[in-house]
Specification:
Length: 500
């Protein structure tokens, strides 16, 4: 190997370790050369973006930051979460100002212990977070908002997300009862240019204002979906693509009758999808799916229940036309038991799709809604913050092989001792597990799920809080935290370098 090749590998190694957003494998060997081995190393820097929580004067928002303890990290680092417009720019031109930046909303002191912050009313801004060193691997931030009354009242929650260049949101709406916004947050020093495409039951909707949207540096842009098209649609798929730069994206769905919540992005289009953790007392479940390619998709619809995979009567399959949004009401599909929806190809061909569930609890004027997007499996490890001793439910699903997972409850944000339990999830089932709680808990805590053995596990967490008879709730999925990245071991090629 010559010096140029070694430099390229060493540079790529450093880049992957710093960003935490890429996975790399070493090039194949040729001739007498020895292939370099890839190893997993902790990421050294992570960024998370939290959307503006609410425009209601009655909103009360809590932020909880948590980083699990990760082997192989050094003793240095920091994590902080602060206003996007205060980070280093004025939010309009991107130029630095003489205005003193506000202090961080959340500033953790050590991995393994949650840190909490809060804001009130409609003035809470979008937030940009950065974690470095020992705080970066597996860093998670939860934004939870309570709104006492008005459109979108109830409990709204979202995992703050990493910036990216593409997002899919099946389950949005521009119906008369809905007020949906797509929030775009730019963490960088240069403007981002974004396209927003809307797809209804008959295909792509015409819009003259959804292309080439500029999101200024260190700023957030909430776009009301109903202003992007003239055609009201009950079920929409929102596709966000970034021409230049990168953004964080989330959809806030507010309903006049059934409250509101955040709709997170679906996992990347795939032939098979899992939507985990439908509450056992759900009174209505609506499935929304979209096929982005040039082929129709025929999906087999099954529910992973506590006793195994079952097929909902009357909703055995779903046909999704290419480029069109399909939706079906599944009613009270769980019938009083924990469940996860499993979508697989019904024929021999596998067509990539994206999907999400809109879930309603309660009846009459005491209804509240939340969303479950299709998600990736836990893989190695995943964490969710802002759990309390009461009102938190962890759902674990193993749609394939039987799996074993370890669940760790962190120390509390104000005190408490961590606790751990191990669970076996049988093949084809979903279990609402009795998650561990820190002994002597004060404040809130985080739950970390780690795969031990067996097949893939899909997970979600439900927070519930009943106010004046309304069963407020919000659901967050737990994909892998990407706390480590695969990098090549360039060191073993030094002997080759010395001979060149």
């Amino acid at each position: 190997m010559n010096r140029t090749t070694l430099s390229l590998i060493a540079g790529a190694t450093a880049l992957a370790a710093v960003t935490g957003f890429a996975s790399m494998s070493a090039p194949a060997a040729s001739g007498d050369s020895t292939a370099t081995a890839a190893v997993q190393r902790p990421v050294e820097r992570s960024r998370l973006l939290c959307p503006q929580p609410s425009t209601s004067d009655l909103a009360e928002t809590a932020y909880t930051s948590f980083t699990p303890v990760t082997e192989g990290t050094g003793g240095d680092g920091k994590a902080e979460l602060q206003s996007a417009t205060e980070e280093s720019a004025d939010g309009t031109s991107g130029k630095k100002t003489g205005k003193k930046a506000a202090g961080p909303v959340v500033e953790p002191k050590a991995p393994g212990k949650p840190a909490a912050g809060d804001s009130s009313g409609a003035e809470g801004p979008a937030l940009v977070g950065t974690a470095e060193g020992r705080f970066a691997p597996g860093w998670t931030v939860q934004e939870t908002t309570e709104v006492a009354a008005g459109t979108g009242r109830g409990l709204l929650g979202t995992n703050c997300t990493a910036p990216d260049t593409e997002f899919w949101f099946p389950g949005a709406s521009t119906a008369d009862s809905r007020t949906d916004y797509v929030h775009l947050t730019n963490p960088d020093d240069s403007a981002a240019v974004v396209d927003v495409e809307l797809y209804g039951k008959d295909g792509k909707l015409k819009s003259t204002v959804a292309d080439g949207i500029t999101v200024q540096p260190h700023a957030s842009e909430p776009l009301l979906l109903s202003t992007l098209t003239d055609a009201p649609q009950t079920d929409l798929t929102v596709h966000v693509t970034v021409r230049s730069g990168r953004v964080g994206a989330a959809v806030q769905a507010l309903d006049d009758r059934t409250g509101g919540d955040w709709l997170g992005a679906s996992t990347d289009p795939a032939g098979s999808l899992v939507l985990p953790g439908i509450p056992k007392d759900a009174t209505s479940v609506r499935l929304v799916a979209f096929a982005p390619g040039d082929q129709d998709a025929d999906l087999k619809v099954r529910l992973a229940s506590p006793s195994g995979l079952i097929t909902p009567a009357g909703n055995e399959t779903l046909h999704v036309k290419s480029g069109m949004t399909a939706a079906v009401d599944l009613g009270d599909v769980t019938r009083g038991e924990a469940g996860s929806l499993v979508l697989t190809p019904s024929g021999s061909s596998s067509v990539p799709v994206v999907a999400a569930l809109r879930v309603v609890r309660g009846k009459g004027d005491k209804q509240e809604s939340a969303f479950i997007p299709a998600t990736a499996p836990v893989a190695a490890r995943s964490t969710v913050a802002d759990n309390s001793a009461k009102g938190s439910t962890l759902a674990l699903s193993a749609p394939g092989r039987t799996a074993q997972v370890k669940v760790t409850a962190s120390a509390g944000s104000e005190g408490g001792t961590p606790a751990t339990k191990t669970y076996t999830i049988k093949s084809g089932t979903t279990q609402d597990v009795d998650a561990p709680v820190p002994s002597g808990l004060r404040g809130t805590y985080a739950l970390t799920v780690e795969s031990v053995s067996g097949g893939p596990v899909y997970a979600s967490r439900t927070l519930a809080s009943t106010q004046e008879g309304v069963p407020g709730f919000t659901i967050q999925t737990l994909p892998d935290d990407r706390g480590t990245v695969a990098v090549p071991e360039a060191e073993q090629d030094l002997s080759v370098l010395l001979k060149s």
